Structures are given as C-alpha cells and as structure tokens.
Description:
The chain is built from 14 helices and no strands. The chain has helices at 2-13, 19-37, 39-48, 53-76, 84-108, 113-120, 123-131, 140-157, 165-188, 194-215, 225-253, 255-259, 262-276, 283-305.
Amino acid sequence: MSSTRTGLQARFTGWTQSQPQIRIGWALAIFATISFSMAPPLVRFAIVDGFDPTTLLLLRMLIASTMLGLTLAAMDWRKLQMPRHGVASSALVGAINAAGMMIFFTALGLLEASLASMILALSPPIVLSLLALRGERLTQRHLVRLALALVGVYLLVGPTGEVNWLGAGLALLATLLFSLQMALTQWTLVSYPTRTVAFYVTLSMTVCVAVWWLLRGAPWSAPSVSGWIVVIVLAVVSTYIARLTFFAAIGRIGGAQVSLLGPLETLLSVIWSILFLHERLAPAQFVGGALILASALLAVQRLGRVNLRLPRR
Length: 313
C-alpha cells in the first residue's frame, strides 16, 4: 500500500523521493508552518507593548537577511550569484512585499492578530484572480471560492460592529500586495533557485524598510527585554529558520504539497492569539473565518496545479 501511495505521489507531483524523505519533508513543512504562524501574534504583542512597527520590521529583516546571506555563502557562495534580470525582479517583488509588511504591521496596531491573520488567508483566491490576467484558466469553482471569501469577510468584520475598519482595510490592502508579489514571483522568478530568490527578495525588503525608516526620521527608543525577545524570535525562528525549513521541505515533497498547509498557518495564528493574547471572536466571526479558510484551502489546491511557489511573509 505504501509503495502504491508513493507511486501515485510521484505520478501527480513529479517527485520520486523515498518514504523517509517524504516524512522528513512533511515534518519540515509542518515545522515551518508553525514558525510562520507565530509571527502575527508576536508582532501584535510587541506593537501593543509600545514597539514602533517600522523599527520592529527593520530589525527583523536586518537580522534575517544577514543570516540568510551568510548561510548561502557558507553553503556555496555561487548561490549568491544571479542574473541582472533576476536581481531586478527580486528587487521589485521585495519592494512590494516590504510595502505589504509595513502596512500589515501598522494594521496589527489597530486590529487583533486573529482577525488580521484571517484576512491574510484571502491571499490564495486573490492570487488565482491575478494569475487569470496572464492566461490562467478560471472555472466556476473559482467563483465559489470568491463567494466564500467575500461572505467570510463580511461575517468577520461586519455584524459585530466592533472591528476597527481602518485596521481591517489596511490588512486587506496588505493582503492584496502580498498576493501581487506572489503572482509576480510566478511570472518572473520561478526559473531561479528558491534559496537565491529568498535571499534577494529578503535583502530588497530590508533596503526598502530601511529607507522608509530613515524617511520617518529614524525613530528609535530602546526596546524592552520582551521587545528584544520578540525581535529575535521573529528574525531567527519565524524568518530565518522558517524559510530554510520551508525550502528544504519543497525540495523533498514539492511546493504544491507544502502550499496546502497555508490554511493551517492561519488557523494556528488564530489559536496562538486566543491562547496568549486572550483575544476573543464572536460566533459570526468564527463562521466567517471558517469560510475564508475553506476558500483558501480550495484555492491552494488549484495553485498547486500551476506549481506556484508561495514566498513567505
């Protein structure tokens, strides 16, 4: 039976790894998903504690990009080489991602992390809509995905009347930017090595955030001990280690399989927010979140068929 499953997986995904490698791949993918899911509640905690959002993001990106660059250089310095077109495309993708991150960090100062994470789960159906602009075929199922997502958003922010609309709008704008950078990655960077792309995109994000931080007058106040802990966990665990394990998982089980864990990441972010930030959701919001997750799960299944690489935030 196990050999049959392996054969089917090889047939449909193009991957011919052994069963031990597949198990390791799934373990790495789950670890990466857990690590990524910690970011929204950690950011929300730090911002509420008084950490400037742009400064927090800058410190995170500085540490993470430095560690990624040193790791690539230590493994094989040639992996740092990239054609000019790839560098330019990475810079554009990184700039869009940086804008989305800065807007999302601002949103987390106004909106609970659980709600913001659910809004971010709209990315997969939005990405499918963007890919349609370049010829990706859409079906009636996509209309169902979009309908589920729209109803979910309404239930998430509408009926209770207690949601900060500015925060929700910023989170939605950030989601649109994240979706755009995912589509651009598919259009311009899919032929380049994933680790090299990750480094140059992260480096571009760091530069963009640093420029914005300087334009804002380089705001700085010494972070508290808890603030530094959040920065280190965000940079080392939720960015550096998470991205390395994410790409290692792709190498073992394929990007289509790893992308299926996207809705799990959102669910875990909501759980951490409820457990550690004591956030509470109304029954209608739970239903809305469930509809958004259902839409996301249906969308990532479709995205897997177009072999979309989903870069992480």
